[in-house]
Amino acid sequence: MRKRPNIKDIAKAAGLSTAAVSYALTGKGRVSAQTQEIVKRIADEIGFIRDDTAARLRTGQSNLLAAIVHDTSNPFFAELLSDFETSAYEAGYLTIVANAKNDPIRQAALIDAMLAQGVAGLLISPVNGTEEAGMQSLRFHGKPYLVCVRDIGDKQADYVGLNDRQAGYLAADHLLSAGIRHFAFVGGLDHTKTWLDRLDGIRAAASDSGVTFPDEMIFNSAPTREAGSQMFDRILNSHSDCNAAICFNDYVALGAYAAIHATGKVVGQTYSVVGFDNVPQSASLLPPLTTVELFPRDIGRKSAGLMLGRLKNPKRQRERLLIEPRLIARESVVRPRA
Amino acid sequence: MRKRPNIKDIAKAAGLSTAAVSYALTGKGRVSAQTQEIVKRIADEIGFIRDDTAARLRTGQSNLLAAIVHDTSNPFFAELLSDFETSAYEAGYLTIVANAKNDPIRQAALIDAMLAQGVAGLLISPVNGTEEAGMQSLRFHGKPYLVCVRDIGDKQADYVGLNDRQAGYLAADHLLSAGIRHFAFVGGLDHTKTWLDRLDGIRAAASDSGVTFPDEMIFNSAPTREAGSQMFDRILNSHSDCNAAICFNDYVALGAYAAIHATGKVVGQTYSVVGFDNVPQSASLLPPLTTVELFPRDIGRKSAGLMLGRLKNPKRQRERLLIEPRLIARESVVRPRA
DNA sequence: CTGAAAGCGCTTACAG
DNA sequence: CTGAAAGCGCTTACAG
Fold this sequence. Notes:
Largest sheet of chain A: 6 strands, parallel
Distance between the termini of chain A: 78 Å
Oligomer: homodimer
């Protein structure tokens, strides 16, 4: 590997000091237009690429951001991160991403690893069960960080999330408005804030329609297609009078479709299903799935915006942003025959 | 933001030199077990986190990897990158990811930005049309890089991709084995190597079955559900005798389902469809989609493996790895009535 | 087993 | 407008 060209090489070739070269390159004035011209030309010629880490060491300014989420391949996070990265890059930052894999130990190690890189700031969607204490390393180092998606009630950090309660409300209200008063809430883990908030919204919608949503219609499962399908096999069996369900996400709804059709009931005709997420495939199902869209890209973009704002102005007041979900009415919900 | 603790602080607290502290922390021997003990305790107490960038400046060793792909939110790349990151992290590396957005300018800028960070190596799935010249910056700096998914015929770089020709062969052979001799190849852009390779495989399979695959049955479109659906509207109209199609990916197949059902034909009964990718939803479609699985996670993991190997041994011979696709036979392909 | 010192590649206060 | 020099936080050859 050949030696990497540095400002000393440029200085030598241009017959200048490294100081002059640095000024010319960063464009901090103090150098004639002609000198700047020459320096830039030479830099190009010898393939000079500034060592950002050396600059960071000197200035204390980093152009690196960190992002830690449960699973970067989960479409929700993949979209969130993609827009976060794009916004960050447009502002001159690169993004280190990492999978915490729902492991608090790994998450803590990752936070410290990011700190070791001297990132300017950190975006984190904390693993379930993370307490504020999980952020102590970040706090101790006074590193700006932003919590997203999973609220841990951190009073110091910016937060960008989605209005899960409203999402639950929209789903339930849509069924209730169609005259469906008996439905299940299927999938999701009962110790996550997202799940609790959605349930809360469902109960609120029911209450607003003058009905009570009974605990026995709550069915937890992993938020996957397989788990959803299995859970529905049981529900269809044990609650054959129930012909509607709110699924924790579109994957669970996908499992529901399979299980429901296996019993001879038909989604959109004799059974109603609502999901959350609006994954691209939801529109192509037969029938197209009614679902609550959550806009992860907005979360990514707004998170980047808030982060960048805080880096510019570190004592800016803490902000809290909730992205509003939207119901996408399609054909998986049917008004029951009178 | 409080001053970040450094080895000088530890040295002062321990009454040692910074050299001793460094040796104790990196565990390079040269220091008594007791001293090491003391240093580590103090480091913990004062919340010391090593500045990796300063270390890198001195040692020239970076624990940062870069990954540039077209779109990190595309599920194929999201899965690839997720496994790449996990493998890299397990070996002590963090990964900076970035979206090239099919823009050669942006891609070049990103490469230089990664170089400026002093990454140890770079993974890239080049934007369509990238020539070897697009890698010149990496070559000039002697930076180890690995090309994945999109082969640009780079003779110097490691390559990990998928056997697209074989993927095309499997799809076509599956139709042919079911006795289907007349089918279309729909979706995908004709200037991409992936598309060309799949077509090549389709032709080879046809040839092996003693039939010719005619150019008029090739229909290009963006590889999306919407474009696929529109293209199928036309094909079903203009080629009503054709009752089978290989779709460039599962999204196009999704579009196909919608368009086909709109004409009264039924996938899996009077029309056969094969896709590529095996996205999670494919199994939940009605009927479940027969598709060719491509294993992006394997590409990510193997890429990380090769990259890490090269970092250990920079003069290791160039490697080329092709992940073998696998046909997932489900219910969207039907043998035509005699 | 330990310390004093140089140096990685930058930026920037200081001096001219 | 320009240069000589210090210093960011580490690691490591050199000396003891």
